[in-house]
Amino acid sequence: MHRLILWNIDLTLVDVARVSRDAYAEAFRRVTGRPLVALPQLAGASDSEIFFESLALNEAGPAGHAREQGHAAHAEANDLLARYAAELATAFGARTNLLASRGRALPGARAALAAVSRLPGVIQTVLTGAIRQNAEHKLYAFGLERFLDLGIGGYGSEVYPKGTQILRSLAMATEKYGVALSPAAAVYVADSVRDVAAAKVAGVRCLGVATGRSTLSELREAGAEPVLADLSDTSRVVAAIGQ
């Protein structure tokens, strides 16, 4: 039996929040001409969601008026997003040398990825809110990319919501590897209740890891099954994924 294991990155595998916040602020200022004073809730959000919520919180753009102004406002918002994504990639890329010193791989992350990669029939990739360039920088900084097929992953640079991206990853893996993969054969490993909700939309099981801002009980109540405090016990991670 073949299985697809999708891993969230931020606060599931790595914590590079300090570097990310600085990159967000620089990209936001370059695109809007205004400082990023208020940052929205980040847990489970994509980079595009973070940007538009930041525009509203900081009263810095047209996103709040898109419904009233129609097509022109939507076009302007899309242009802003494209510019922001480019600036964010540049700002984060300029800070890649800081990832290892100001960030960290979370306990057990590397060992868990390595152990799961040895399970028969397993294909591993990522489903993350980060744009692809930045997702790759985060993984490469800690040597985690070698266990993952990043070509079939889902990223914040895409227009699809996470639930749809899970299904797209299943379809891409099925085509690339020539194996039968259904939602029942997939597990999403993530740390936020929003990620649990995305897994529900796709009909896949979510293994909750309480290393982010969602607690064990919140993840459990949202529908994650099972829920672990972290990834430090490799045998428990492998058993949870294989259950």
Give the arrangement of secondary structure elements.
Elements: E1 3-7, E2 14-15, H1 17-32, H2 47-57, H3 66-69, H4 71-93, H5 99-102, E3 104-105, H6 109-117, E4 122-126, H7 132-141, H8 162-177, E5 186-190, H9 193-202, E6 205-209, H10 216-222, E7 227-228, H11 234-242
Helix pairs in contact: 1-4, 2-4, 6-11, 8-9
Question: What is the chain-wise order of helices and strands?
Answer: EEHHHHHEHEHHEHEHEH
Strand order of the largest sheet: 4-1-5-6-7
Q: What is the CATH class designation of the largest domain?
A: Alpha Beta
Name the helicity range.
40-55%
- How many beta strands in the DSSP annotation? 7
CATH topology of the largest domain: Rossmann fold
Number of helices: 11
The CATH architecture category of the largest domain equals 3-Layer(aba) Sandwich
Shape: globular
Largest sheet: 5 strands, parallel
**Rg, nearest Å:** 18 Å
CA distance, first residue to last residue: 13 Å
- Low-confidence region ranges: 63-67
**What is the CATH homology-level superfamily of the largest domain?**
HAD superfamily/HAD-like
Strand content: 5-15%
What structural class should be given to the helix and strand makeup?
A: alpha/beta
Domains (count):
2
Mean pLDDT reading? 91
Question: What would you note in describing this structure?
Answer:
This protein has 243 residues and is of the alpha/beta class. The chain has two domains: 152 residues, Rossmann fold (3-Layer(aba) Sandwich), CATH 3.40.50.1000; 82 residues. It is built from eleven helices and seven strands. The strands form two sheets. Strands 4-1-5-6-7 form a five-stranded parallel β-sheet, sandwiched between helices. It has a two-stranded antiparallel sheet with strand order 2-3. Strand 6, helix 10 and strand 7 form a beta-alpha-beta unit. Helix 2 crosses helix 4. The longest helix is centred in the middle third of the chain and has 23 residues. It is globular. It starts with a strand and ends with a helix.
